[in-house]
Amino acid sequence: MSDENGSKIIENSAQVSVLLPLVFHEAFDYRVPAGMDIRTGDYVRVPFGRRSLWGVVWGKGSFTLEEKKIKAIECLAAHLPPMNETMRNFIDFVSWYTLAARGPVLKMALSCPDALEPPVQELRYQLSEQSTIRLTPARTRINAYLSGAVPRSSKEITAHAKVSAAVVREYIKSGGLKEVTGCLLPVAGSGKGTDPWPLATGHLSAAQETAAAELRKKLAAGFSVSVLDGVTGSGKTEVYFDTIAHCIAAGKQALVLLPEIALSVQWLSRFESRFGFAPDVWHSSVSAAKKRTCWRNTAEGSARVIVGARSALFLPFRNLGAIVVDEEHDASYKQEEGVIYQARDMAVARASREKIPAVLVSATPSLETEYNIEHKRYTRLHLPNRYNDAEMPKVQLVDMRSVAIERGNWISGSLRQALLTTLAAKRQAMLFMNRRGYAPLMLCRACGHRFQCPQCTASLVVHRAHAKLLCHHCGHIVPTPKQCPDCKHEDCLIPYGPGVERVAEEVRALLPDARIEVMTSDHIDSPAKAEVLVNDMINGKIDVLVGTQMIAKGHHFAGLALIGVIDADMGLAGGDLRASERTYQLLHQLSGRAGREKTKGEVWLQTYMPEHPVMQALSMGKRDEFMLLEARLREDAGMPPYGKLAAVIVEGKNEQEVMAFARELVRDEARGAMGTGKSDVTSFLAPISLPLILGPAPAPMFLLRGKYRYRILIKTERQFPLQQFLSRWLLERKIPASLRVKIDVEPYSFM
Ligand code: ADP
Ligand code: ZN
Asked: Is the CB of 555 under 6 A from ligand 1?
């Protein structure tokens, strides 16, 4: 027997296996109490140790334990449909792909255990028909309040009839009020609006309509991946709104992933004005109560559109019809903690299991996505021009090698001039400096001492506004010192290099009358603060916005004419495989904020490497040429997406132990490979089918949060069964309790 969820009633089963949101891969056996009907996928609460936890029925019991050792299921979330088979398969897949145990993956899907508790039904009362009850002034007020025949809770009655709780209690006891059963409180969720929303596409431009029509066709055609590739301001959002409208008109749910949902005030209000209701929002700073409602509505199928950060991908959709991944190239889709996964790729995996379309949206699709287009797995839908013929901004390079600039200043003469002209014309400007704080380093001028984090391989960053030095990796804080700890000199400590606060200080000196604001995660720690700042920008209350990558995200400011990038080369430093690609994408997205309407936009990039392919591509608008070059370099090096990578990080408090264990891992693998006679050590140099194992080497962040780190990099051909190899090598091995081994399949961070 199988229902629409693919959930079988487990007939006559005295035991079932229940997967729990803990560190374990395996499910545990539990006894089914008499009279409880259990299906695969049911949410059940079970005792575990001294706790009681919600888990999911994963299948039949294994019957390997003695009957009396098996504990019984405590309760079943009968108010919710079971987790469907597609979702359970998806959890299995994510676990297999990332090599994370199944429990932690399930934990992401059960991120709101409160939602599983049966809803507390507040009792509600109506007037009874008895007429013999003595009336008091207080009771008369209650009668008046309840005369509309709508049942109310005692809380509502006390508030509206202005009586005490005791009066209500007595009135109930005397029989004047009767309890009304079966009346749930109205669910306070959003996404349930009944207003119609426009399905008409008359407002779309010809290019937009062509793309939208393609996507509409995909809605009823099973799994597909489309890449909505359009220049910034071409109306990509407008096009996928059309897809969503048709998806929900067909009675299905839609999921939109956004990289910085907490900053997306403009996106939300645009959605609301288009659809007439607010979507359900899912990200880490949403309140517990809202999460509970959102999770339940998603599971029940009543939430129509969910917009969220990567974790929204693990919501238990009842009836998902499409997944949109906006800014698909954004690095924040890679989760680096806990279960290490790439949400864009897992979104495609989920869409494939749900047999629905995925839409990846970007002005600068990632090389991974380009590869999949080239190999005909994904289809490109192109929007080549800005909506309404708005022009693309003009991008100019400032060669910082030939610029005379005063010590302690960071803004070149050309950019200063552009700022003055822009503000004189009553237009807005943005300055980009991708480093929080005032300066990246505090230095002693007398002896050269640098202030380092004691727990990380990192300098402490100077935050002048709060008079502190802060580690951006572990949060370690010290008050700004007055004296050098080494040479004991006073007045010799200088902040070295620029941070966003220092750039703002320079702008204030240059433009004393301008209204200047700073936008970084230190200043904007809640969606509400982001909203204030974004609205001030829209309403022209800010002249110059100085910020980190937060200012590059999705904003549409009609009056924004100038963008200055203080250090365009910053992202190119370091050995990151994707450094060029990412720098290009970030600066391109940032540039795309300028001149989105009638105002013409200009962008100034300050660089010490004007001949670098990234700078050349940005200034000449040659995206495709740049990506081709990048693709060739990666292909020659056998790097992703042309080859596969995995990183293994061994961490622990004892440096010797970490090193020894990392070496042992690699030695054992080499021995394992030789043992099978498949290779000798020399073949690691010229891999044909065996992976190349690099390291172990101390990680660039050798010390992080007080733990030493060694990295091993595994590089293979694309066809190589990487998961099988890693699990055979690493998962069956006993790891000392003092160490942690992190496996990162397709690493994005090389720190
Ligand atoms: P993108 O997502 O490609 O950056 P947007 O969808 O944000 O582009 O569109 C850029 C601007 O143009 C927005 O202000 C949007 O409201 C407007 N726009 C785009 N397409 C249309 C359309 N068909 N009708 C009305 N306004 C549009
Ligand atoms: Zn630190």
From this structure: no
Tell me the average pLDDT across 613-637.
Answer: 95
pLDDT in tens, 181-222: 543 333 333 344 444 456 766 789 999 999 999 999 999 999
Q: Is residue 192 part of a domain?
A: no
Residue 9 located in a structural domain: no
Other CB atoms within a 10 A radius of the CB of residue 144 amount to 11
Residue pointed to by tokens 């309403």 = 539
Instruction: Give the integer Cα–Cα distance in Å for 741 and 729.
Output: 12
**Burial of 522: CB neighbours in 10 Å, binned 0-12, 13-18, 19+:** middle
Answer whether the bond into residue 186 is a cis peptide, omega within 30°: no
656 part of a folded domain: yes
Distance CA 68, CA 740 (A): 36
- Same domain? For 337 and 366 the reply is yes
Q: How far is CA 396 from the centre of its chain?
A: 32
Half-sphere exposure at residue 216, Cβ-oriented, CA atoms within 13 angstroms:
16
Helices 265-275, 236-249: inter-axial angle, 10-degree rounding? 50
Q: Terminal CA-to-CA distance of the chain, rounded, Å?
A: 51
Are residues 92 and 165 part of one domain? no
| Mutation to probe ligand 1, out of 232, 237, 274, 588 (largest number of atoms < 8 A from CB) | 237
Cα–Cα distance for residue pair 322/424, rounded to 1 Å: 47
Q: pLDDT, tens digit, for every residue of 570-606?
A: 999 877 899 999 999 999 999 998 888 877 899 999 9
Nearest CA to ligand 1 atom 9: 235
Domain boundary among 71, 98, 116: 116
Q: Do residues 625 and 652 share a domain?
A: no
Most confident listed range (128-142, 147-161, 447-461, 549-563): 447-461
Asked if residue 453 belongs to a domain, the reply is no
For residues 282 and 425, state if they share a domain: no
| Rounded Cα–Cα distance for residues 735 and 726 (Å) | 15
CB atoms < 10 A from the CB of 642, how many? Answer: 17
| Ligand 1 center–CA 205 separation, angstroms | 10
Q: Is 266 in the pocket of ligand 1 (CB under 6 A)?
A: no
Burial class of 196 by CB neighbour count within 10 A (0 to 12, 13 to 18, 19+): exposed
> How many whole angstroms separate alpha carbon 257 and alpha carbon 325?
5
Of residues 179 and 192, more confidence is placed in: 179
Q: Which domain holds residue 381?
A: 206-387
Sign of CA pseudo-dihedral 201, 204, 209, 212: negative
pLDDT digits over 10-24, tens only?
A: 655 789 999 999 999
Burial 457-480 (b: 16+ CB within 10 A, else e): bbbbbbbeeeeebbbbbbebeeeb
Tell me which amino acid residue 91 is. Answer: I
Nearest residue to 393 via CA among 606, 232, 582: 232
